[in-house]
Amino acid sequence: MRSLRDAYGDALLELGEEFPKVWVVDVDVGRSCKTGAFQEAWPERYVNVGIAEQNAAGLAAGLAAVGITPFVTTYAAFGSMRMCEQIRQSICYPRLNVKIMCSHGGLTPANDGATHQCVEDLGIMRTLPGMTVVAPGDYFAAKKLVRAAAVYEGPVYMRFTRDPIPFVYDSGETFTIGKGKVLREGDQAAIIAAGDVLSQAKAAAEALAAKGVRICLVDMHTIKPLDTALLEQIMSVCGNIVTVEDHNIINGLGSAVAEQAAEHGGCRVRRIGVQDRFGESGPYPALLEDNGITVDHIIESVEALLRR
Amino acid sequence: MERTVSELQQKAMELRRCALWMIYAAQSGHPGGSLSAADIVAALYFRELRLRPEEPQWPERDRFVLSKGHVCPIQYAALLLRGFLSPEEKGTLRKKGSRLQGHPDMKRTPGIDISTGSLGQGVSCAVGMALGLRRQGSRVRVFCLAGDGECNEGQVWEAVETAVKYRLSNFILFVDQNGLQNDGPCEEIMPPQSLAEKFRSFGCRTYEIDGHAMEEILAVLDAAQDSDVPVAVVAHTVKGKGVSFMEHAVKWHGTAPNEEEFRLAMTELERGAVR
């Protein structure tokens, strides 16, 4: 188990060495977002503007306009909402090469409660023209995708978890932004997951496979641009799809998949995610359970689809 | 570029006529703030900024950020007269497919260093540019023009305190204090108190000038050269300056003149040019 914010900090340190144009812009949550090692190694490429997210986004646009690749680092709630309009106007509209890197996505800052949890970010960000939206599923995926973001031209929003989550991959796995990963092939039903709940989706897929279900499992780490080619392929063989995300069921991964399924026709989709409500303080598994984001519920949802 | 005060004053009037012509042709745009900013824009584009019109992306160019992006006709006029844009583009402001969008667009328009339009944001962008350039060893300067109404935005002050924190002496902010904003006088909508005192207390080297007195604009640009902190210039101006019926009138914040008003305005601006 390791948190994705740790992956971010570790990846940054490697990137700093390799990419001299990578800078970090902090908003007084650098300690929580693991930028400390980068700051220590490259103080000349580190900026902390204090608790002023809107200014951070605008300043990053200015840095990008003079050839720098800034990694703006904050919590998902503030990165997707407090600086939303600045991201739209100053970053996405001119398509500047700014990365919005957010810890504390989903329900994972569990003890902090609803104000610091964020179940809206993927939806808000995917609505912005020109934005790329990524939610890695474990520590190794996050490390690789942070690196991918550094070489990817254009704005990227990436979401990390605060709390440790299980490993799904090993360190040798490769990732490409915009390409979903098929972790298990199957033609009866597909589980499509993004972000920190990938491990639950994987456990559910394994349990279903043990029961003889030919189950497909996809890590759709990039919500936008959605890997429509892969989905097309899956939808043409599987008529049953369950999506899993630690995000509001409105406008996140489930919505994105459902949109394509509706256009494709002939597919049934069930969305597992946060039930359009705010979280609260409490243990992370309990918060997930409140919303039915559990291994058992994923299994039940797939079986219910197969019974129809 | 060495030019006399009177040549720069002529340029400012030429910019005013060109901007008003564009707004009239578009039947849309913001004449009041374009006219109030004309003298500052003329001083920057015809004397201060190091630019290469034939090479708009020249890395060593001074940057100019029009944070009050709605007055872009006055900047487009300067870009036209400096040769960044071709003369036939003059009639394309706000037209479909035009490079001259309703607000500045860095991806479409040569000579635009950053896209602006949503107020407050350009100041942050300018500070980011100044910081990035400075730390990369460049001596390039970043000039930013904001409005007084725009200073309602908290982001302006977040940006200024950042410029001061990093001692960005290559950041020069002009505030076009014309005293009027969209809904009425600034004093009524959100009293600014003393903008100069605010900038001073934030740690900027701060000047207050008459934003239509070319000698004062040039003097402040010269004086800013040796600053070791960010420079703020509060320029007291008249909204609609140069057209009698547009001066001090909220109505002309975002209204295009009709034919009769346009003819009258151009006559006055011609007369003003030979004062």
Describe this structure in words.
The complex is a heterodimer of chains A (308) and B (275). Chain A has 308 residues and is α/β, with parallel strands linked by helices. Chain A folds into 2 domains: 4-159, Rossmann fold (3-Layer(aba) Sandwich); 181-307, Rossmann fold. Chain A is 42% helix and 19% strand. Chain A is built from 13 helices and 12 strands. Chain A has helices spanning 4-18, 30-33, 36-41, 53-65, 76-82, 84-92, 121-126, 139-151, 198-210, 228-237, 253-264, 284-290, 295-307; strands at 22-26, 46-48, 69-75, 99-103, 132-134, 156-159, 181-184, 189-193, 215-219, 222-224, 240-248, 268-274. In chain A, strand 8 (189-193), helix 9 (198-210) and strand 9 (215-219) form a beta-alpha-beta unit. In chain A, helix 1 runs parallel beside helix 8, helix 9 packs across helix 13 (295-307) and helix 10 crosses helix 11. Chain A is globular, with a radius of gyration of 19 Å. The two termini of chain A are 37 Å apart. The model of chain A has no long low-confidence stretch (mean pLDDT 97). Chain B is α/β, with parallel strands linked by helices and 275 residues long. Chain B has one domain (5-273): Thiamin diphosphate (ThDP)-binding fold, Pyr/PP domains (Rossmann fold). Helix content of chain B is 41%, strand content 12%. Chain B contains 10 helices and 7 strands. In chain B, helix 3 (38-48) crosses helix 9. Chain B is globular and about 50 Å long. Chain B starts with a helix and ends with a helix. The mean pLDDT of chain B is 97. Chains A and B meet through helix 4 and helix 6 of A and helix 5 and helix 6 of B.
